[in-house]
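I had to read the description of the data format several times before I understood it. The format is easy to grasp once an entry is in front of the reader. For illustration, here is how one protein appears when written out as sequence plus structure tokens:
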Amino acid sequence: MTTAITGATGHLGRLVVARLKTLAPALPLVALVRTPAKAADLGIAAREADYTRPETLAAALAGVDTLLLISSSEVGQRAAQHRNVIDSAKAAGVQRIVYTSLLHADRSPLDLAQEHRETEAMLQAAGIPHTLLRNGWYTENYTGSIAGALAAGSFIGSARDGRIASAPRADYAEAAAVVLTTPGHDGKTYELAGDSTYTLAELAAEISRQTGKTLPYVDLPPADYAKALAGMGLPAGLAQAIAGWDVGASQGALFDDGRQLSRLIGRPTTPLAAAVAAALAQR
């Protein structure tokens, strides 16, 4: 029963592959990637699969029973790319698809949600048994800014006092691996998020505690936050998007207290303090 993972050389994909090799070492795995040579270190078979080139997908999906469709990183192009994969999977006889969607995609105010809603609808229309992993925010989305915040002397954002229930990518990767290797998940939608929540002010306080440096959280109007991010070298469109996601956080878009993630992985999700310590260790 061959299992294929799209985007296997990405941050999440690599973690999923590593966890699958531990959970089910005998399971035949295939990495579906744009450049197979970049997947050599994964230690599994690799096939060329480009979301934008359907002609590569038929061969890539041949003989695949279960597909983990990790959502494309190209915002604005995801719906079309995912349609290519889903259509090719149906034609190839793939029996099951697990898709990484967005937390509460059906009602999320985040602009990211629309393409996930479209993809979920495509899966339903395709008639292939599937599971929706509605992943919440990755803690790395914020801890990746720690070094810059320490250098600048403040942690900035536009999330106000919105509570964020994030977890590191490794926790979400473990959930995907569990769903891929155990029965009973077809037709289910999992709202995945961290067990505990925090505000960005609390994140800044935790960084201060661990570094011994006072790092205040400075909440900015979204336009000012986007301008500040652009000033740091981010493309203007991405800067505006990030500011908009913080606004969504202030509206509860990144909050969930259902603890479905910890139930899937059979342990508590990684706490914020541990994620901050890991990020500081990598500086």
About this structure: Residues 196 and 235 are 32 Å apart (CA to CA). The chain has two domains: 3-135, 143-150+152-163+195-257+268-281. The mean pLDDT is 96.
